[in-house]
UniProtKB/TrEMBL annotation:
Coiled coil: none annotated. Residues 1-34 are annotated as: Disordered. This is Class II aldolase/adducin family protein. GO terms for molecular function: actin filament binding. Transmembrane segments: none annotated. It comes from the Bacteria. Residues 40-220 form the Class II aldolase/adducin N-terminal domain. InterPro entries: Aldolase-II_Adducin_sf, Aldolase_II/adducin_N, Aldolase_II/adducin_N_sf. GO terms for cellular component: cytoskeleton.
Length: 269
């Protein structure tokens, strides 16, 4: 019987290079090095979100905590399309709303949501929220994702529903209520609004948003086709421990990083 073997890897993508990308990342040598790493991945996240169609007018924001000053975070400027955001466009904001780096306004709802999250969750390095189509559609159901696929199990017992919808999140108390609803979970469905994900790395937070929107899409399709057959709780819980780790989220982002930087290297400017 003939074995099936994968094609040889291109010379520039050696086995050693692939292993380096998928190996645990060593601690940065300085705050400056870590800051650049986070900002580059944040800019890449916006470019990827544009490719996935997660841009919607002025809505949508992703933040990453500054490594040197934990009460500050980097965010996208208002009215700059995700597909055009570069590292140099990112703005540094304090939890109090003072813009320290950058000369553009920022999304007020974005500030309200992210400031509350970063204050409430010191473990959260990054948070992502956009008005993605499938995320919005699913949020209108007011229910959690069901464990109907291996991928959706990543969120089993690890996401919340934030309700009711009370308008654009502009009040500090509303941001605090959202953070309380999220608790220690990695994601939330904001009823009649969209999706929110967080992570201990920008890579994980970005990947969880991409895959959560995909899980919402899959469930909407399955529900339209007929009755659902969810995975049994014990199996869903086991699968969550296998596919829902933040380390797994970090690694899942790596191929996307490689691809978007190759396609759009100007994001690093």
């Amino acid at each position: 019987m003939n074995a099936i073997t994968p094609p040889a890897a291109p010379a520039q993508d050696s086995a050693q290079a692939r292993e380096r990308r998928l190996a645990p990342r060593p601690p940065a040598a300085s705050f400056e090095e870590e800051r650049l790493h986070r900002k580059q991945r944040l800019a890449a996240t916006f470019r990827l979100f544009a490719r996935y169609g997660f841009d919607q007018g002025l809505a949508g924001h992703v933040t990453v905590r500054d490594p040197e000053f934990p009460d500050r975070y980097w965010i996208n400027p208002l009215a700059v399309h995700f597909s055009q955001i570069r590292v140099s466009d990112l703005q540094l904001v304090t939890h109090g709303g003072t813009i320290l780096v950058g000369d553009r306004p920022i999304n007020t709802a974005g500030f309200t949501i992210h400031s509350a999250l970063h204050r409430a969750r010191p473990d959260v390095i990054a948070a992502a929220h956009t008005h993605s189509t499938y995320g919005k559609a699913f949020s209108a159901l007011g229910t959690e994702l069901l464990p109907i696929t291996q991928d959706s199990c990543a969120f089993y017992e690890d996401h919340a529903v934030f309700d009711p919808f009370s308008g654009v999140v502009l009040d500090d108390s509303e941001g605090e209520r959202l953070a309380a609803a999220l608790g220690q979970r990695k994601a939330a469905i904001l009823q009649n609004h969209g999706l929110l994900t967080v992570g201990p790395t920008i890579e994980a937070a970005a990947w969880w948003f991409i895959t959560m929107d995909n899980a919402a899409h899959a469930q909407l399709l399955a529900q339209a086709a007929g009755p659902l057959k969810p995975i049994a709780p014990d199996v869903a819980r086991l699968t969550a421990s296998q596919v829902g780790t933040h380390q797994g989220g970090y690694f899942s982002f790596q191929p996307l990083w490689d691809w978007i930087v190759a396609q759009e290297p100007d994001l690093l400017d």
